[in-house]
Specification:
Layout: H1 3-18, H2 24-40, H3 42-55, H4 59-75, H5 79-95, H6 99-115, H7 119-133, H8 139-159, H9 163-179, H10 186-203, H11 207-222, H12 231-245, H13 249-266, H14 269-286, H15 288-330, H16 332-359, H17 393-407, H18 419-426, H19 430-441, H20 445-463, H21 472-478, H22 484-495, H23 499-518
Helix pairs in contact: 1-6, 1-8, 2-3, 3-4, 3-15, 4-5, 5-6, 6-7, 6-8, 7-8, 8-9, 8-10, 9-10, 10-11, 10-12, 11-12, 12-13, 12-14, 13-14, 14-15, 17-19, 20-22
Length: 519
């Protein structure tokens, strides 16, 4: 999913709506920070957000500074700090009863939690954003926000593989954008929606519908004020995926090349990542050398991004600590005054108590109260499971046969495979599939998929000597694992040895056989 591109659009709408005339000093610092320093000098940008908050003339400016700070922290992987900044902004928006900003802040929070796959919490803030958006008095502002919010709603549906529902939500959002006035680039926002609709139709294997919406997105983008946006690269990549799915490799490559030109020129990380993934899937079936080339490019892209983010994060953490030290120094005098006042108050209380005790003449007796102890008897017998699976042997065997037949298609090599996918593919309830696998394979669904992947790759290693030359990372990706480490761990769990040991042993065995044959 294209999380970052949608997020940037979301932030753009947030800040574009807040950009009205303010103090020239505030505007100058804010514009420099948001347009230049946010990506080129994160450390200085973070200092500027603190400065902007200090010189703010009203709560709206403070909210704007806090949201800019949250944007910077989030794009450098500091989620918790970003959430703190947004919650501070939300408290100010609630205080001012500014429903427009409340809705946007909650939408922002939903996006952050979704990006980090904390979906349950993300949905809580999504519902808050939806509820508050209905209270926005300015209808035009409401339409713009709700149009963007429909994309956020769609992503949650896409996570659950509810692609049809996602399409319906995006079409509702498109209508909201059409109701807004010309103060926003409606063509651009509608193009974003239609490109995303095309993706969902592609996931549903409705190729004709996908093609229509990618064509709509291309036309709308060309007529927009942002016709040179990297969005064009995503659209071209969508065309490439469409034509690749129908076997028109020539057209597919043409559009992939166009998308790659835009990705290189814009240096847009998310576009590169999505394009490389598409090209890997394309060449996986046609050209192993090209597949390896784009797999290496994709791995390098991720590593460079992680290294850059780590470097920026280290600098930001250092800046945050310096800010804390400055704040401690700044309020040291106030703390001393408070401490002195507390001491005086305690002394006065002590004097009052002393005088009271001197005046009061009594004798105290110690008494003990009987305390009734109530013992609660607990049933120590373990609760028996209330529900059991009841299934006839014929039904169980029929499902098992279908599963075995599906295995022949190597479905498990798909990185995005899920129990829901298999249930839809076989037209069988998820619970039944899980039950049959658990009973007959003595393993859960995830373990079952991973075992199939490992058995597939060990079979290829035994029967194709070329596979002995490939890198472990390539083998991991080939059989559907998302990371080298998880592949290695699973491989050892299934075979009893590491991938490297397995390959080395096979190579030695083959060398021995060749030697014996030569003799």
């Amino acid at each position: 999913m294209r999380l970052k591109s949608i997020f940037f659009l979301f932030v753009f709408l947030i800040f574009s709506d807040l950009c009205y005339s303010q103090s020239s000093k505030y505007d100058k610092v804010f514009n420099e920070t948001s347009t230049v320093l946010l990506s080129s000098n994160p450390e200085k940008a973070l200092r500027n957000t603190a400065y902007l908050y200090e010189i703010s003339a009203n709560n709206t400016e403070r909210i704007k500074a806090s949201m800019l700070r949250a944007t910077l922290l989030r794009q450098n992987g500091m989620r918790n700090e970003a959430v703190i900044a947004l919650k501070r902004a939300d408290s100010l928006a609630v205080l001012d009863k500014n429903y427009n900003l409340q809705a946007r802040i909650n939408g922002f929070l939903s996006t952050i939690y979704r990006e980090y796959e904390i979906y349950s919490l993300g949905k809580v803030y999504l519902q808050k954003a939806i509820a508050v958006s209905k209270k926005i008095e300015n209808k035009n502002e409401m339409y713009k926000f709700q149009g963007t919010l429909s994309q956020e709603i769609a992503y949650y549906e896409m996570y659950s593989s509810n692609f049809s529902k996602a399409i319906a939500d995006l079409k509702v959002g498109k209508k909201k954008f059409e109701l807004a006035d010309s103060t926003i680039d409606k063509k651009f926002h509608i193009a974003v929606n239609d490109e995303l609709i095309g993706k969902n139709y592609l996931s549903l294997q409705k190729i004709d519908s996908a093609l229509i919406y990618f064509q709509k997105a291309e036309k709308e983008l060309s007529e927009s004020e942002s016709s040179k946006s990297p969005l064009k690269g995503f659209i071209f990549n969508g065309f490439g995926n469409v034509y690749a799915s129908v076997g028109d490799d020539k057209k597919a490559l043409l559009y992939y090349q166009k998308a790659e030109e835009i990705a290189m020129a814009s240096d847009f990380f998310t576009l590169k990542q999505e394009l490389y993934t598409s090209l890997m899937q394309f060449y996986k079936k046609t050209d192993y050398k090209k597949y390896i080339e784009y797999n290496e490019l994709n791995l390098k892209l991720k590593k460079d991004e992680e290294d850059s983010r780590k470097s920026n994060t280290d600098e930001l953490i250092k800046t945050l600590r310096e800010e804390q030290e400055q704040n401690q120094s700044k309020y040291q005098q106030s703390r001393i005054i408070i401490a002195v006042c507390c001491f005086v108050f305690v002394v006065l209380i002590a004097l009052v108590v002393y005088v009271f005790r001197r005046k009061k003449y009594y004798t105290s007796k110690l008494s003990s109260d009987k305390t009734e102890v109530v013992y609660i008897e607990e049933d120590e017998k373990p609760k028996q499971e209330a529900s059991k699976e009841y299934m006839s042997e014929a039904t169980e065997n029929a499902i098992l046969e279908k599963i075995h037949k599906l295995e022949e298609s190597h479905f498990y090599l798909n990185k995005d495979i899920s129990l829901n996918y298999v249930a839809v593919k076989l037209s069988i309830n998820q619970r039944y599939i899980s039950y049959v696998i658990n009973k007959n394979k003595s393993i859960d669904f995830a373990g079952y998929i991973n075992e199939l992947r490992i058995h597939y790759i060990t079979d290829r290693l035994r029967n194709d000597s070329n596979f002995l030359k490939y890198k472990i990372s390539f083998l991991a990706d080939l059989c559907g694992f998302s990371s080298h480490s998880r592949f290695t761990t699973t491989f050892k769990k299934v075979t009893g040895v590491s991938p490297l040991t397995f390959i080395t042993d096979l190579q030695e065995e083959r060398d021995k056989e060749k030697k014996e044959q030569g003799e």
